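Consider the subject:
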Amino acid sequence: MNTPKISIITPSFNQVDFLERTLLSVLEQDYPNIEYIVIDGGSTDGSVEMIKKYESRLAYWISEKDRGQAHAINKGLERATGDWVAWQNSDDTYYPGTFSQLAAVAQSNRSAQLIIANMNLVDQHDQLLREMKYVKPSYKSLLAEGMVLTNQAAFWRRSLHQEIGLLSETFDCSFDYEWFLRLLAHTDQSHHVNAAWGALRLHENTK
């Protein structure tokens, strides 16, 4: 199977209770060509020590004060060199086999610029709360219905953010929505996989 490089960025700030699960959900994928970048915003809760535990398996990491989540992701995107790129928050996870499935789908859908899958909502103990099933995303569906995709199970070709620009730091909670709107206004070459690739964790500090 073709193994394109997959770059994952994790923005991190004071979520040590969940961070290790996020890190391992990337590092334990059965896939040989991963570039993992962790951008920490100057955590003081033990997150830095957790990152150091796995630093030999990271392509890059840093811990320094930043301007927020979107800025942290942008710092990672600027360093990413993969064919496919995504970000996974420091309290969310990928499911096993996701990257291999992505590579197979990309190989059989060579025109695809954005590939998404389904996502689950889980609690702080990883117990399933709700399944979130999507369809092929488009600019019109995103504009009319809101977030019909989530970063927890979305990957795009790196050339896309080079063409449309990085995430806007103007928005605190909706920067992902605004960015995916720009992405889908730029390309209609999207593809949906009817499988759960990631989990969004709901807990008392979920953004």
